[in-house]
Specification:
Elements lengths: L2 H11 L4 H10 L7 H11 L4 H8 L7 H5 L7 H10 L4 H11 L10 H11 L4 H23 L5 H9 L6 H20 L10 H14 L9 H7 L3 H16 L3 H13 L2 E2 L5 E2 L2 H10 L5 H16 L7 H10 L4 H10 L10 H11 L6 H9 L2 H4 L2 H10 L2 H7 L4
Antiparallel strand pairs: 1-2
Helix pairs in contact: 1-20, 6-7, 8-9, 8-13, 9-14, 16-17, 18-19, 20-21, 20-23
C-alpha cells in the first residue's frame, strides 16, 4: 500500500466512535474513493456529455445520471468493467478505477471475466465483443471440467449430454440440462424455501478435481502475455485450454484456509455441540441472532461460489464480512484477502474505514456485538457504503434494539 493509505489506515484505527470516524472521512475527503468525481473528469477528458454516456451505456438510463451527481454509484463490479471497456481505458487505468473508485480487486488473469477484459482493453474491443469472448472462454472451461469429471455423473446424464449435437444452440441446451440435473439433486436436500445449496455433484466435482490436480503444478500465462502475445479470440480459447488447471484451482487455497481455521477453532453452541463446518457455523449464527436469515442465505451462497463456481470472481465485501463472523482481527482478514488475491483493508473506502475503526475498538471474545454497537449510529445508517455492512450484520432484533430504521 502507498504511504497515504498507510497513514489513513492508522488514523481510522484511532477513531473511538462514529463521530470521530465522520471527522476522519471529512479530513481525508480528497483521498477517499469518489466515483462521481472520477466519472465527471472522465467524460470531460472524452469530450462527452452525461446524456451521451447514458446512451452508450444503454441500460439503467434513469439511474446513470445519478452517478454524476454523487447520489448513486454502481453496485456490482461488472458495471465498472463495462464502463472501462466502453470508455477505452487501459488495464492499468482499469485497475486504478476498480480499486480507488469501487473498492474492488484488480483485474485477475486467473478469472475468466478478467482475462477476457484484459484482452478486450488491450485490443480495443467493444463491449459486445468482450461479452462474446467471455462466454466462449467460459463455455470452453465448462467443457474441459465436464470432460475431466464425467466419471462422477450418472450414466443416464452422461448419455444425454454426450448425445447433444454441437450446433449453435449446444451450450444453451447443455446449461438447461445441467440446471435440471442440479435442481433434481437439490430437491431432496433443500432445507429452506428459496435456498440454493451446493449439490452432491458439485461437491463431488470439487473433490474429484482436487484429487486429479493434486501435486500437478502448471505454468500460468500472466497478464503481460495476454496483453502482448494473444492476438485474437482463438488465442484466448487456447489460453483457457493451457491454463484451465490454474483457473480451476485459484480458489482452492482460500477454501483450505477457511476449512483449516474452522477445524482449529470449532464453534461450540449454547447446547455444547461442536460445529466445524461452514454451513453449520453460519446456521448457528442465525439461530442465536448474530445474523439474519437473509444474511445466512447470502453468505451460504457466497461460500458455495468459493467452492464450486470456478468462473466467478469472489465478492470482496462478503469475504470481509465472513472474516467478521469468524471473529478475525484486521491482520487475519488481510491474510484471507491476500489468499484471495485482493488488497488489504483500505481506509480510502468508507465502509472499510468504518470496519477498521470498529475492529480496533472491539473485544476479541465479543467481536460481532461490539462491531454492531460501534456501527449503531444514525450517521453510519445514513452512509450508503456503511449501510451495506449494517444490512448484512444486523438482525431485525438489532434494528429495534438500537432504534435504527431499515
Amino acid at each position: 500500500m502507498g504511504k497515504v493509505t498507510d497513514v489513513m489506515n492508522a488514523r481510522a484505527a484511532e477513531c473511538e466512535d462514529m463521530e470521530e470516524l465522520i471527522d476522519f472521512c471529512k479530513e481525508f475527503d480528497s483521498e477517499m474513493i469518489n466515483f462521481s468525481k472520477f466519472m465527471n473528469e472522465l467524460i470531460k477528458r472524452k469530450n462527452m456529455t452525461v446524456k451521451e454516456f447514458v446512451n452508450i451505456y444503454n441500460s439503467q438510463k434513469t439511474k446513470i445520471p445519478k452517478w454524476f451527481d454523487g447520489t448513486l454509484s454502481p453496485t456490482e463490479r461488472h458495471q465498472y468493467i463495462k464502463i472501462a471497456i466502453l470508455m477505452g481505458m487501459t488495464p492499468e487505468e482499469t485497475n486504478l478505477f476498480l480499486t480507488r473508485c469501487g473498492g474492488y480487486s484488480k483485474l485477475y488473469p486467473k478469472n475468466i471475466d478478467d482475462a477476457a477484459c484484459i484482452h478486450a482493453l488491450t485490443h480495443h474491443m467493444d463491449y459486445e465483443g468482450y461479452k462474446i469472448l467471455r462466454n466462449r472462454m467460459e463455455n470452453e472451461l465448462k467443457e474441459i471440467i465436464y470432460r475431466e469429471t464425467r466419471e462422477i455423473y450418472p450414466e443416464e446424464y452422461v448419455a444425454i449430454r454426450d448425445s447433444i449435437p454441437h450446433d449453435d444452440g449446444y451450450f444453451d441446451t447443455v446449461d438447461k440440462l445441467d440446471e435440471q440435473f442440479k435442481a433434481k439433486e437439490r430437491k431432496n436436500g433443500k432445507k429452506h424455501k428459496g435456498e440454493k445449496t451446493v449439490t452432491d455433484a458439485e461437491k463431488k466435482q470439487e473433490k474429484y478435481l482436487r484429487l486429479k490436480l493434486m501435486n500437478k503444478e502448471s505454468e500460468f500465462t500472466g497478464t503481460e502475455v495476454i496483453m502482448d502475445h494473444l492476438n485474437d479470440s482463438n488465442d484466448m480459447i487456447q489460453y483457457v485450454k493451457d491454463n484451465w488447471k490454474a483457473i480451476v484451482t485459484a480458489n482452492f487455497r482460500l477454501v483450505d484456509y477457511i476449512d483449516s481455521w474452522l477445524e482449529s477453532h470449532p464453534y461450540v453452541n449454547e447446547d455444547d455441540r461442536v460445529v466445524d463446518t461452514i454451513g453449520g457455523f453460519l446456521f448457528e449464527k442465525t439461530v442465536y441472532d448474530d445474523i439474519s436469515f437473509n444474511t445466512y442465505k447470502v453468505i451460504q451462497s457466497f461460500v458455495s461460489e468459493i467452492r464450486c463456481h470456478f468462473t466467478k470472481l469472489l465478492s470482496r465485501d462478503y469475504l470481509i464480512f465472513l472474516g467478521v463472523l469468524f471473529d478475525f482481527d484486521i491482520e487475519e482478514i488481510n491474510t484471507m484477502l491476500s489468499i484471495a488475491h485482493m488488497d488489504f483493508l483500505c481506509a480510502r473506502v468508507e465502509s472499510e474505514a468504518a470496519l477498521i475503526a470498529a475492529l480496533h475498538n472491539c473485544r476479541k471474545e465479543n467481536k460481532i456485538s461490539d462491531v454492531k454497537e460501534f456501527l449503531a449510529d444514525e450517521q453510519a445508517a445514513n452512509s450508503k457504503k456503511i449501510k451495506k455492512i449494517i444490512d448484512l450484520l444486523f438482525t431485525d432484533k438489532d434494528f429495534m434494539e438500537f432504534g435504527l430504521s431499515k
